[in-house]
Design a protein that fits this description.
Blueprint (H helix, E strand, L loop, with lengths): L6 H6 L12 H10 L3 H10 L4 H14 L2 H11 L8 H14 L2
Length: 102
C-alpha cells in the first residue's frame, strides 16, 4: 500500500485514468466524484455506508446530483452541516480534510 498523496498531488491525479493506489474508500469516492465519474463514486460511498467520511462524500455526491433532500439526509448521517456554495470547492475541502487526517 502506498502513502496518501498530498492535496496537490491528489488533485493533479484527476487528469489520470484512475485514482492513486492505496487511497481510503472515502478518498477514492471523492476522486471519482471530482473526475465526473459519479456512478463509480456513489458505488464506493454506498459500499461504506455508516462510516462518517464515506457518508460525508455521499452527501456531497447527492448535492452534485442535485438531490438536496437526499444530500441533507447524508450530511446528518455524517454529523456535518448541510453544505452550500460551490460543489467543486466542497469536494476539494473534503479532500483536504481527509488527507490531513490520513
Amino acid at each position: 500500500m502506498t502513502s496518501t498523496p498530498d492535496t496537490a498531488a491528489f488533485l493533479a491525479s484527476l487528469d489520470g485514468p484512475a485514482p492513486p493506489d492505496g487511497l481510503a474508500p472515502a478518498l477514492r469516492a471523492v476522486w471519482f466524484g471530482l473526475a465526473d465519474r459519479w456512478d463509480e463514486a456513489h458505488g464506493i460511498a454506498q459500499e461504506h455506508e455508516g462510516q462518517p467520511d464515506a457518508d460525508w462524500v455521499h452527501a456531497w455526491l447527492h448535492r452534485v446530483e442535485g438531490d438536496l433532500g437526499n444530500a441533507g439526509y447524508w450530511y446528518r448521517r455524517a454529523g456535518r452541516p448541510v453544505a452550500q456554495g460551490d460543489l467543486a470547492a466542497e469536494g476539494r475541502a473534503i479532500v483536504e480534510s481527509l488527507i490531513s487526517r490520513a
